[in-house]
Specification:
It is a single chain. With 415 residues, the protein is mainly alpha-helical. It folds into four domains: 10-57; 69-162, Orthogonal Bundle (DNA polymerase, domain 1), CATH 1.10.150.130; 178-357, Intergrase catalytic core (hpI Integrase, Chain A); 363-414. The protein has helices at 42-57, 69-80, 87-105, 115-127, 132-151, 159-162, 178-188, 194-203, 207-211, 256-268, 299-312, 322-333, 338-345, 350-357, 362-395, 401-414; strands at residues 10-13, 19-26, 32-39, 218-219, 224-227, 230-234, 237-241, 250-253. The strands form three sheets. Strands 1-2-3 form a three-stranded antiparallel sheet, with helices on one face. Strand 1 and strand 2 form a beta hairpin. Helix 2 packs antiparallel against helix 3 and helix 8 (194-203) crosses helix 12 (322-333). 24% of the residues are buried.
């Protein structure tokens, strides 16, 4: 039997009657490993060997583990993303992977996943009635995972990025006007959670930030509210945690209405006001608004109160997060500079404030267009007057100068 050339691997028959091939392959870490493949016949084994040789020729590292898409998604989520994203994002990723991605693609070998596989999976979800938002999130998570697989040199291309991205245009966020926001607050006067909703609409803070606000975060001497933590429900527990971004940590002026509401709330609940403590560690203890059990208030409980009083006040039903959009738009309508609005809201960029959180207002549209109309009409009257005056001058150019001047004065007086 002729020996194969060095570097071309070896092909041989096993005692079982099957054929096998072995070849040295380069791993992702740069080391070399002898890899064996087998088949029922010599031709099948040779075909597998040739594929390995072609992979080595193209300098595509050999994966020690033959990952399925589902296995690698788990690895990506638990060992890589867990170090980069927050718990709420991890929960959303995990739910999307468990409910949608694994059932459609999880059993396919990672290295064999194709663009058509991704297309078929997206089409299956769409035919099943899933929304554009779900399809877009599916595509986003899968693509991010495959980008990581490319960096690990397990695949040589991201087939999800090559598949068409699902089209989805989010609906405009419905918000309240300044008058509607005022009506809501008036309907809540005297309620134990009133102070939180006043803070939400005055500063546009996030719900978790408002729930996480403690008496010790307020500097009454210098008139400052310090946004330093947030309350969330994660894994079935109410926890206090760090804020979403560095820009979320901010100090805001303590306006008189909020000051009075906090003091009144403390007095009603017999709270002995603790001193301002800028170094206090994050905690669910000492929050301004509490549950009936004395613990930090559940985000879902705040939402239920919000829905109840929205209906009571006869207002359009909006999402509680839309109160942040409402506050941002009120800032705009009151001509608060965009940079100040950005810092109050705790956004990293003014473009987020302007393009996502600030919305158009039909009333300000009407005022603006009335101003344009008035300006155009005024310009039209001036133009008509100038043309009339010019015509008058042409008609009277043969009059005696004294008569002409007298006629012009009378014309001006009558207009």
């Amino acid at each position: 039997m002729r020996r194969r050339a060095k570097g071309n691997g070896s092909l041989f028959k096993l005692k079982s009657g099957r054929w096998a091939a072995e070849v040295n392959m380069t791993l992702a870490n740069g080391e070399s490993e002898r890899v064996r493949v087998s088949g029922k016949s010599k031709e099948v084994a040779r075909e597998k060997l040739n594929k390995l040789l072609e992979q080595e020729k193209q300098k595509i590292p050999y994966a020690e583990k033959d990952w399925t898409v589902g296995d690698y998604l788990d690895h990506w989520l638990n060992n890589i993303q867990s170090r980069r994203v927050r718990e709420t994002t991890m929960s959303m990723y995990g739910q999307m992977i468990r409910i949608h991605i694994k059932p459609t693609l999880g059993g396919i070998k990672l290295r064999k996943l194709t663009v058509q596989d991704v297309r078929n999976a997206l089409n299956t979800l769409e035919d099943g009635g899933h929304s554009g938002a779900v399809l877009q999130k599916y595509h986003q998570i899968l693509s991010a995972c495959l980008n990581c697989a490319m960096r690990d040199e397990l695949v040589h291309r991201n087939v999800a990025s090559l598949a068409e991205k699902p089209q989805y245009t989010p609906k405009d966020t419905q918000i309240w006007s300044l008058e509607q926001a005022t009506t809501f607050l008036q309907s809540m006067k005297g309620h134990p959670q009133y102070v939180i909703f006043l803070i939400l609409l005055t500063y546009g803070v996030r719900r978790g930030e408002a729930l996480g606000l403690r008496y010790s975060d307020i500097d009454f001497v210098n008139g400052q509210i310090h946004i330093r933590q947030q309350i969330d429900r994660i894994g079935g527990k109410i926890i206090a945690r760090d804020l979403k971004t560095k820009n979320s940590q901010r100090s805001l002026p303590l306006v008189s209405s909020v000051y009075n509401a906090i003091i009144e709330h403390a007095n009603k609940n017999g709270v002995v006001m603790p001193p301002f403590n800028p170094k206090l560690e994050i905690s669910t203890e000492g929050t301004i608004v509490k549950s009936t059990k004395g613990t930090a208030l559940e985000p879902s409980n705040l939402r239920r109160t919000f829905d109840l009083f929205t209906e009571k006040a006869g207002l359009p039903r909006i999402k509680i997060h839309a109160m942040r959009h409402t506050a941002a738009t009120i800032f705009k309508d009151l001509n608060i500079p965009i940079k100040d609005a950005q810092l109050i809201l705790g956004h990293a960029n003014a473009s987020t404030t302007l393009n996502i959180y600030q919305h158009g207002n039909p009333e300000t549209h009407r005022i603006a267009l009335n101003a344009v109309e008035e300006h155009l009409s005024d310009m039209g009257v001036r133009k008509d007057y100038m043309e009339m005056e010019a015509d008058s001058k042409d008609d009277d150019k043969d009059l005696h100068p004294a008569i002409f001047r007298s006629k012009t004065l009378v014309h001006s007086f009558n207009n």
